[in-house]
Amino acid sequence: MDNLLVFGGSGMVGSALKEVDTDLNLIFLSSKDADLTSEKETEKIFKDFKPKGVINLAANCGGLYKNLDHGIQLFHDNIAINSNVLKYSYEYNVEKVISCLSVCIFPELEECPWVKLPMSEKDVHSGPPHFSNNCYAYAKRMVDILSKKYRYLYDKNFITITPTNIFGPFDNFSENTGHVIPGLIKKAVFAKNNDSPLFVKGTGSSLRQFIYSKDLAKLILWAYENYNDEETIILSPDENDEISIKEVAEIIAEIVGVKEVLYDTSFSDGQYKRTVTNKKLKSLHSKFNFTPIKTSLEETVDWFIKNKI
Ligand code: GFB
What is the DSSP string of 112-160? Predict the structure, then answer.
């Protein structure tokens, strides 16, 4: 059976992929198997496995505050990872590659009055991203440009997907480098154990669409088997599932049993709003149902308490 390599296989989404029933022969690789910022190590993986397909979940990524402090390293690492994976996918004649963009790479509305909400796949490159993560955003935009160029010059089926903010078990729960939901879950559990308030960074007014890692994993396999277009595809719950950080914090506080939620407005809120539409996904995969956020947050809190305390 043909090999399908999953880079970033030990991360949050890779771990969710392992739980999905599929006939595909998925081989999960992590940074322990190869440093994908190294051309030499990347080529050795392709030489050894000669894969038919690649799902590239590998990235140096993190939340707002990691992006604010470490943008240069994020830029270098993600440019290297993505160009190496596409270069050797081409040289070793891989039939299909999925690379990941992110909704945070979309244009920042305050700088782009010509961009209208909800944003769609055609908006990815139509204006500068939010300054807070522009290094990561431009690095990620390059994998979209490069995938399209391999298609144009060599007719390669290299596609990209664009998830919204992802959360779930096996996430990075570090308060300094992680995303908002794992950060809030970790802080809420410790607040509960110490009978203290849950401190939310910023005002809580920013708005996000969140996708559960288990839902994303199913959609990635669906895309591998069904989606072959040049244009990226947004993988997100509906635009009216958009939720404020304040609402998320209050749901997490209720699940964990924290009585008080306080806001530390000395922290930046980052990008305020970047609503995207999932119209394209729903037109191609109408039967897909996203897990309700309260259920997915409950499962993630349970996982965190069982595995990280
Ligand atoms: O997930 P996050 O860190 O990044 O969310 P982005 C940041 C939002 O959550 C800001 C608030 O409005 C923060 O003020 N927030 C509240 C917190 N408490 C916390 C906390 O304890 N930790 C964190 N991290 N935030 C990301 C990009 O942007 O979007 C990534 O930086 C990625 O690269 C992702 O692409 C999709 O959602 O702002």
Answer: -TT--SSB-GGGTTSS-B-GGGHHHHHHHHHHHHHHHHHHHHH--EEEE
- The token pair at 2 is 């043909």
Alpha helices in the chain (DSSP H): 12-17, 39-49, 64-91, 134-154, 180-193, 213-226, 245-256, 279-284, 293-308
Q: Which of 109, 11, 19, 26 is nearest to 59 (CA)?
A: 11
- Distance between CA 77 and CA 60 in Å, rounded? 6
Task: Say yes or no: CB of residue 61 within 6 Å of ligand 1.
Answer: yes
CB distance 106 to ligand 1 below 6 Å: no
> Is-catalytic flag, 212?
no
Amino acid at residue number 268 = S
* Segment 68-112, tens digit of pLDDT: 999 999 999 999 999 999 999 999 999 999 999 999 999 999 999
Q: Position of tokens 């809190």? A: 301
Quote the radius of gyration of the chain (alpha carbons, Å): 19
Q: Are 109 and 128 in contact (CB under 8 A)?
A: no
Partners of 212 in the β-ladder: 167
pLDDT level of residue 296 (50, 70, 90 thresholds): very high
Q: Which two tokens stand for residue 110?
A: 């305050």
Tens digits of per-residue pLDDT, 144-193?
999 999 999 999 999 999 999 999 999 999 999 999 999 999 999 999 99
CA pair distance 303, 307, nearest whole angstrom: 6
Any ligand 1 atom below 6 A from CB of 67: yes
- Is there a cis peptide before residue 182, judged by omega within 30 degrees of 0? no
